[in-house]
């Protein structure tokens, strides 16, 4: 019988409600407590990755004397040990006990005859119990996963109240952490500070862009993705900080952080596809069919993310060290990522075909985010097959955050409103979007392909720190005549003063 797990339905509750619902300890927690009753004669309890020199297990077990005598079995991750007995249907209880090496003190007999178990007989309400309190230190040549099981071969089932504290040293940064989790808290705090800086920089740039009437929807999405990323890392840091204190943490808080992390990823992915299609760069709107396709795709992606979280919480076997993408939902996410990249490629190529003058933006944009699109599938393959299980979680956590930092950092650099930035994508003010995106004759969408470029080059960056109200009253070209296309970049800085002879000439 496994320790109780959080119901899957709680994953679907609103975030604020999630914070209020206490979840029972998971089998992977470093402070483990439960009451077990099973007809089986061999049951898995929990696992922990101990350091090579500082691992420690402190326990308290209690069970009726009539159920004597039960054993605590300590397996490690050698192929001849845990992998050889877990989920091995051809092995009975005695065969599973036979792989234990007595010389390594891997058996704790919960009896008064075994002095190291710390057992003594106590009476409560006329019932005699064996109460065992003691501990065990772990030594090995490297960090190892240890698996704790309970057995009573040939008996009439198992019954046990258990409480275990599994620790690595006495430091705040290591005590309650499994060895594969070392450094996660420090890494999350570091990336939280970096993403706070990115978010504030994006807000500052957004303020400058708003003054130039260039704060478009896609840049707002980038700011939203950065803000949600900050919230996600903040909740992760709170969770790991509490976990470092008591060894339990708040599982609901961790689930909320994962949901926010996925939300940030989805917002950023949608922004990339929209930019690839030229939205706010070469067109003022997305066609109806394109909007429907995007809605269907993002809904499917979101549902797959939710299914992945539920699958991980409910169906991942705590007796095995599994990675998030080692599931059908994980493979589905990889497939959706590849499909998104194909769509992204097609959209960018179409945009470049109609607007070759946008190459200074789209060529580095496409190259940079081609790496980003393939980073997640490559990371999943490396994590599944190339990283040792006793080091996987901390390494994958750092890689994931590094991938997100790369994506946000590149976009922040490419869209900085600097006078020397030739890659700046936005060349039409927000006040001109409506006229530029107006349908052509007969309701056609030809206006999407005649989105004006560089129409505002008659003002400097500094002098345009406030909205240019003159353009609010400008008269757009007639819908029947196509809007002028801009010539390719002349190599001059984007915001250089290029005043024409007459006012509003380029409109």
TrEMBL record:
Per the record, the major location class is membrane
Query: How is this protein positioned relative to the membrane?
Result: Multi-pass membrane protein
Q: Give the GPR180-like N-terminal domain ranges.
A: 32-162
The record places domain GPR180/TMEM145 transmembrane at 191-411
Q: Which terms under GO biological process does the entry name? A: G protein-coupled receptor signaling pathway; response to pheromone
Q: Which residue ranges does the record annotate as region Disordered?
A: 477-507
Keywords attached to this Swiss-Prot or TrEMBL record, sorted alphabetically, are: Glycoprotein, Membrane, Signal, Transmembrane, Transmembrane helix
Q: Which residues form a coiled coil?
A: none
Membrane spanning stretches: 189-209, 221-243, 255-274, 294-311, 331-349, 361-383, 395-414
| Name of this chain's protein | Transmembrane protein 145
Q: Which gene encodes it?
A: TMEM145
């Amino acid at each position: 019988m496994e320790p109780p797990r959080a119901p899957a339905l709680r994953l679907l509750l609103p975030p604020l409600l999630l914070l209020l619902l206490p979840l029972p300890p998971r089998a992977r927690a470093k402070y483990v407590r439960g009451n077990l009753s099973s007809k089986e004669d061999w049951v898995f309890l929990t696992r922990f990755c101990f350091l090579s020199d500082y691992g420690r297990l402190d326990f308290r077990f209690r069970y009726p004397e009539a159920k004597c005598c039960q054993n605590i079995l300590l397996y490690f991750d050698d192929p001849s040990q845990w992998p050889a007995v877990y989920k091995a249907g051809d092995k009975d209880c005695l065969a599973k006990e036979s792989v234990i090496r007595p010389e390594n003190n891997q058996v704790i007999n919960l009896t008064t005859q075994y002095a190291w178990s710390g057992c003594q007989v106590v009476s409560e309400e006329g019932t005699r119990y064996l109460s065992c309190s003691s501990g065990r230190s772990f030594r090995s040549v490297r960090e190892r996963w240890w698996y704790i099981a309970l057995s009573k071969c040939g008996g009439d089932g198992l019954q046990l109240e258990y409480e275990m504290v599994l620790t690595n040293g006495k430091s705040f940064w290591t005590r309650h952490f499994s060895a594969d989790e070392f450094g996660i808290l420090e890494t999350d705090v570091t990336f939280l500070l970096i993403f706070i800086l990115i978010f504030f920089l994006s807000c500052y740039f957004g303020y400058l862009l708003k003054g130039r009437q260039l704060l478009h929807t896609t840049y707002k999405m980038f700011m939203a993705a950065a803000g949600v990323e900050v919230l996600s890392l903040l909740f992760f840091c709170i969770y790991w900080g509490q976990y470092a204190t008591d060894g339990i943490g708040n599982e609901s808080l961790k689930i909320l952080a994962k949901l926010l992390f996925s939300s940030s990823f989805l917002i950023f992915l949608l922004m990339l596809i929209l930019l690839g299609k030229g939205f706010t760069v070469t067109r003022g709107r997305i066609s109806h069919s394109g909007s429907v396709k995007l809605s269907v795709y993002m809904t499917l992606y979101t549902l797959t993310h939710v299914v992945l979280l539920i699958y991980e919480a409910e169906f991942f076997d705590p007796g095995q060290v599994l990675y998030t993408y080692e599931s059908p939902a994980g493979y589905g996410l990889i497939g959706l990522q590849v499909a998104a990249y194909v769509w992204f490629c097609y959209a960018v190529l179409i945009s470049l075909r109609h607007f070759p003058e946008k190459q200074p933006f789209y060529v580095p944009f496409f190259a940079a985010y081609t790496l980003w699109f393939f980073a997640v599938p490559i990371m999943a393959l490396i994590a599944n097959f190339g990283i040792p299980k006793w080091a996987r979680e901390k390494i994958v956590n750092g890689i994931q955050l590094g991938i997100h930092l790369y994506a946000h950092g590149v976009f922040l650099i490419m869209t900085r409103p600097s006078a020397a930035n030739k890659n700046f994508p936005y060349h039409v003010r927000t006040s001109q979007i409506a006229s530029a995106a107006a349908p052509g004759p007969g309701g056609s969408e030809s206006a999407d392909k005649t989105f004006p470029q560089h129409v505002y080059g008659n003002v400097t960056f500094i002098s345009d720190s406030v909205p240019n109200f003159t353009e609010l009253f400008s008269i757009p070209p007639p819908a029947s005549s196509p809007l002028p296309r801009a010539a390719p970049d002349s190599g001059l800085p984007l915001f250089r003063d290029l005043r024409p002879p007459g006012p509003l000439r380029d409109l």
